[in-house]
């Protein structure tokens, strides 16, 4: 959404970010977008809202399958439950 006040341009935008990005990474991207809008288009003020982008269901299922397979392989190799918990695998 955009508006002008006098000769100044004000924008409110929503960016969908990959949910795997950290908060820091998402805000770095938002800062870059704000700078680009100011430099290229003379936007006076930009209010950026960050939302997680939806993940396709097949990608979710693929990630779950890979994680379950990795856990099974680690357990088959005789790793202790405490080691897996410490490494955030379970």
Q: Mind explaining what this structure looks like?
A:
This protein is an alpha+beta fold. The chain has 2 domains: 1-54, Alpha-Beta Plaits (2-Layer Sandwich); 55-90. Helix content is 50%, strand content 24%. It has 3 helices and 3 strands, in the order ββαβαα. It has a 3-stranded mixed β-sheet, covered by helices on one side. α1 links the parallel β2 (8-17) and β3 (45-52). The radius of gyration is 21 Å and the shape is elongated. The mean pLDDT is 83. It holds the Pfam family ZT_dimer. It comes from Streptococcus pneumoniae. InterPro entries: Cation_efflux_CTD (IPR027470), Cation_efflux_CTD_sf (IPR036837). Residues 1-52 form the Cation efflux protein cytoplasmic domain.
Keywords for this structure?
90 residues; Alpha-Beta Plaits; three-stranded mixed β-sheet; elongated; 2 domains; alpha+beta
Question: At the fourth CATH level, what is the homologous superfamily of the largest domain?
Answer: Cation efflux protein, cytoplasmic domain
- Widest sheet: strand order? 1-2-3
- Pattern of helices and strands: EEHEHH
Structure class = alpha+beta
CATH topology of the largest domain: Alpha-Beta Plaits
Largest sheet: 3 strands, mixed
| Number of separate domains | 2
Low-confidence regions:
none
Do you know the CATH architecture of the largest domain? 2-Layer Sandwich
Question: What integer value in Å does the Rg equal?
Answer: 21 Å
**Average pLDDT:** 83
Instruction: Give helix % range.
Output: 40-55%
